[in-house]
Amino acid sequence: MAAILDLNNKDQALSYLNACHCFGRSPTNVDTVINAQEVSRIHAVVEWTDNQWFIRDISNNGTWVNNQKLIKDTPQKLKVSDKIFFASGESHGFSVEDLSPPQNMLLPIAQQGDQSPIILADGNLLPSEQNPEIALFYVPSKDQWYKEFLVDTDGSAYPVVNSDLLFFDNQKWQLKLTPLTENTVLMAKAKLSVEQIKYRFNLSLDEENTELTVTTDDEQFSLANKAHHYLTLSLARHRDEDAKQGIDEDNQGWRLPETLIKELGYEITLFNTHVCRAKQQFRDMLDGACDGDELIERKGKKIRFAGVFYRIYKGNELIVNRGQDKVSLTVLHG
């Protein structure tokens, strides 16, 4: 993420640029406010275009880069250590410190030592995978970011937007999201329904290891042993129990987290962390063709596995078969 330093206040933290970042006097129309009468309401814009950063003057009183006045409305490529001045060649100056591509990130509100911004992936457990407090994730089909508090028993996901504040690790953070630009092309896959996805769980005899194979009409994904696969498998078992009792598909498998954490021996934070990891793996694996929230569903305080076609093998024994034929796959032995 590109960053600039205010030359009039070098002790201030770096300012990170949006993909289209406006400078000027108007507090409601620009990203960086310069409170001076000689500065235009919208004075200049820095833009990420063709994988490069450019600055463009759109003011009445001019913009200077390294003491050279820019030609109005003509983009000029920026370089690290460039000095930018607004309305004169000597005042309201900024130094270009970084010209990395735009990225989604969290900015610390109050610096604690050398606390750095957190660069975000599409799925994040914060402050760390080892000690998560919240999940922050992006759902491509909705073009929306969400936060989830991992101590909540209801597993509610709350939408968040650019500049929202989050609190974790005893610190406030501000969300800085980079919107899609006109140069970004989304190569979305065709949407998959839950009925087009088949699952095979390979469970070791001692139930210590769980592998998962996911098959669609066009692809097969073999997922190595992960702790969150056992959670998904447990949800599938509950769905199978309800199916055997003749409960209709819409009502199969719904369980309260309190019931599941007692059964699995988890704390609620670990339970929600495994749910987030499972959803994110489905989301990444299917590349937006089906969201994790569609495969592990929440309704009120209850949760369930949404799969319709699934098999569970324990060692080499088929113990659950919902709508699928046997196939030859490697089995796990405990």
Walk me through the structure.
Strands 2-1-11-10-7-8 form a six-stranded antiparallel sheet, with no helix packed on it. A five-stranded mixed sheet has the order 4-3-5-6-9, with no helix packed on it. A five-stranded mixed sheet has the order 22-21-20-25-26, covered by helices on one side. It has helices spanning 227-244, 257-264, 268-286, 292-295, and strands at residues 3-6, 15-16, 20-24, 32-33, 44-49, 52-57, 63-65, 68-69, 76-77, 83-86, 93-98, 105-108, 118-119, 123-126, 134-139, 144-149, 157-160, 165-168, 171-176, 198-203, 210-215, 220-223, 296-299, 302-305, 309-314, 317-322. It has 334 residues and is an alpha+beta fold. Strand 18 and strand 19 (171-176) form a beta hairpin. The chain starts with a strand and ends in a 12-residue tail after the last strand. It folds into three domains: 3-98, Tumour Suppressor Smad4, CATH 2.60.200; 105-176, no CATH class; 194-322, no CATH class. Helix 1 packs across helix 3 (268-286). The protein is elongated, with a radius of gyration of 26 Å. The longest helix has 19 residues, at 268-286. 15% of the residues lie in helices and 34% in strands. The chain has four helices and 26 strands.
